[in-house]
Amino acid sequence: MGQSSGSLKLSVKERDRRYAAIREGLREKGVDCAVVRGSNLFYLSNGVKGELFGILPVEDKPLAVVVNRRHLIDISPRVLLDAQEWVTDLKPGFDAAAVVEKLKEMHLENGTIGLAGGIDYRFYNRLQTTLSAAKIVDVSDIFTDVRTIKSGEENALIDRANRIFDAAIKRIHEVARPGMMGKQVVQEGIRAMWDAGGDLESTLSFNFGPVPAQNPILADLCMTRKIEKGDIGTLTAHAHYCGYAGHSDQEISFGKPKPVHQEIFRAVIAIRDAVLKQVRDGATQRDLIDAYQKACRESGFKSSPHSQIHQYGIDIPEFPGLAYRIADTKPEAGGLGGAGNFVLKSGMIYSISPTVVNKDGADTLLGGTSLIVTESGYRDHGERKVEMLVAA
User: Fold this and answer.
1) Which CATH number does the domain housing residue 243 bear?
2) The domain boundary residue, chosen from 126, 147, 168
3) Count: domains in the chain
4) Tens of pLDDT along 28-49?
5) What's the 3-state SS for the chain?
6) How many CB atoms lie within 10 A of CB 133?
7) Is 7 contained in some domain?
8) What pLDDT, on a 0 to 100 scale, did the predictor assign at position 3?
């Protein structure tokens, strides 16, 4: 995960807040350290180039980060140390051997070692056979719980990431026209995100055709198709800023939209408003999905399992930790997604883009933006309005 060159960045105070929260969870479980990789490592390191694994001791000692040994060929580790403020203990390595060596250096051969985030069986087996006296446990739930609620600094990065996607929408609305290839539109959008300060990892999905839809397979096929007059395009954000995501959706019509598509999109706006009325600290995911399904029925259109009412942050999507989950009061109604039912809390980030399906066909439209849950309701990210854009 890359860092943008923008002015916002996470503080060392934010790092220490995270470490304190994770360590509290480790102590409660009697765990001596957490071994992490992937987005959980990024959460602790703020992104070190070439990072593979991290080891966070429960004591107040620095996070140790194993960096791909090829990244340190012909340069001093001091280059990486001086390039950032969060990590002060770097070690070259390639696989579990470097982690085992570090754990021995920390005298944890007989300790309780927690694993969290993308640890494969080969890695686990190496730890278990090499450190036979150690107890190995899963601590993924600790990270999920802590990462569920975003701090003010995290929210600022997510807001910036969403504004970066807004810049892509503006550029595409200006330049995308019938006759252009799908990949040309995507390239224009990605360049706009880069110009706005987005990370190089920023991507976006573009579906288009006479029957609107949103599907990763169709989006891939659209890359080599030409836009035709009368097509409806669906753009989905995977903008990134300093490793944090911006995620929402936008519809664009190439030429005047058909009456049926105008009608469906009016329903999208009304249905989204019904969902937003439920968003507040103390509400539940079931409250949101019930409001979505009820509003769809009242509109005369159909709901979809692809409802785009979910959390995100570093990853898209992210699911709340076990501390926030509760039993589903209407399991027969479905629609909750992989997280099941849970309680909304101030500081949760949501993408709310309800999907609405035509009652007589396959036409599928959605629209929305990103927001943060507050005690009294929510606060939007960015300034983009939920509307269907028209490109002549």
Assistant:
1) 3.90.230.10
2) 147
3) 2
4) 999 999 999 999 999 999 999 9
5) CCCCCCCCCCCHHHHHHHHHHHHHHHHHCCCCEEEECHHHHHHHHCCCCCEEEEEEECCCCCCEEEEEHHHHCCCCHHHHHHCCCCCCEEEEECCHHHHHHHHHHCCCCCCEEEEECCCCHHHHHHHHHHCCCCEEEECHHHHHHHHHCCCHHHHHHHHHHHHHHHHHHHHHHHHCCCCCEHHHHHHHHHHHHHHCCCCCCCEEEEEEECCCCCCHHHHHHHCCCECCCCCEEEEEEEEEECCEEECCEEEEEECCCCHHHHHHHHHHHHHHHHHHCCCCCCCEHHHHHHHHHHHHHHHCCECCCCCCEEECCCCCCECCCHHHECCCCCHHHCCCCCCCCEECCCCCEEEECCEEECCCCCCEEECEEEEEECCCCEEECCCCCCCCEEEC
6) 7
7) no
8) 47
Rounded CA gap, 257 and 259, in Å? 6
Assess whether 279 and 351 both reside in one domain: yes
**105 falls within a domain:** yes
Its domain, for residue 196, covers: 152-391
pTM score above 0.85: yes
Are 101 and 192 in the same domain?
no
Whether 6 is covered by a domain: the verdict is no
Instruction: Verify that 96 and 59 share a domain, yes or no.
Output: yes
Within-domain flag for 4: no
Task: Find where tokens 């036979």 sit.
Answer: 132
Which domain-ending residue is among 91, 115, 147?
Answer: 147
Q: Residue 203 pLDDT more than 90?
A: yes
Which pLDDT does position 6 carry in this prediction? 52
**Do 102 and 161 reside in the same domain of the chain?**
no
Q: Answer yes or no: do 356 and 209 share one domain.
A: yes
Model confidence pLDDT, tens digit, residues 1-35 = 544 445 789 999 999 999 999 999 999 999 999 99
